[in-house]
């Protein structure tokens, strides 16, 4: 079996009229800010997508019942017994503020040495245009017909816990149920240059902790006799987790659904993460919590984790201000696995803090999503794996879940379709960071893979 080189893929991309057309669509999508957290551009981008898919021949619904419109674009096959593929994507992005270094304007699609850059180019706008390119390429070659029904569903609040997605799915449940396969938003190649094909993700509950110890900040000379909000919160946080990362909240691990044998085997076979590789990638300065590879992988994929996202307390200006802070706050999260619910975990944390004598800590729920995990044994998923092996010289890495979070559980509960996540990214695509990027060769290979997936339903 021969595989195309990066140079060959670039040449094919440049000579492909359809791919070039939707590359310009991607350029426009990147230029249009669509940030749920800032309530920017959501209706404009949803409307634009509706126009793009209508022009491509789809029947389009743009439902703006809630803050972020929901876009459905349906391409129907002439076959009476045609199966259905659903592509789930999102058109919102995280911000690109001044705290992140960008070589070029993040909302201008730029190309340098075979790489394209821009906010959302991988997460997730580039995946939309690549998949639409594949659909149109097949249709042009086959008289504007398809061997399989294809539906795109695109939400605009994924980066903010998919607000109202559950409501939209309930509204269109009958229309969308019964798909043979649901292709998830995105994915990437790993450091071994293998395409990762994922079957799930962790859930999450994020929350704020607040402590008020006095009406005003107090002179620090009283530090030996008066407690401060800062010390109180630090002690409370320390009670939640041990120094190896184990959560110390009663009942958490009792609810965890353990992985089955196939899920364990997939991770053992395909996961290529280790303590040394993580240290190298991130330039770690502190010791790893887990050094044994088998233990590291089990915790990474199948165990919950508790993280401090940020702590704020006291004086942070120039010079010195000798005070006992009257207020302290923290943003924190727990990554969830099957068996755990956002509400249940937060209730357990509340009970733990009260039990340990930290009742003055106020908890505030901010967002939550359930987790989903698959053993990747559905026939339509196995078909994706077999096809992908024909396009990636280094092969594939099949994993039952990722350690990241998304609304897979919400979508699966509503639609019940087997799911596989794969996409156009690379190991250093920098999603959510500065200089978010995608290789044009990887972008075009994804187009070819999706076109082959469509062809496999002939």
UniProtKB/TrEMBL annotation:
The keyword Metal-binding applies. It holds the Pfam family M20_dimer. One of its GO terms (cellular component) is cytosol. It is an enzyme of class 3 (hydrolase). Keywords: Hydrolase, Metal-binding, Protease. One of its GO terms (biological process) is proteolysis. InterPro entries: Cyt/Met_Dipeptidase, Peptidase_M20, Peptidase_M20_dimer. GO terms for molecular function: acetylornithine deacetylase activity; metal ion binding; peptidase activity; succinyl-diaminopimelate desuccinylase activity. Residues 200-357 form the Peptidase M20 dimerisation domain. Its EC number is 3.5.1.16. This is Acetylornithine deacetylase.
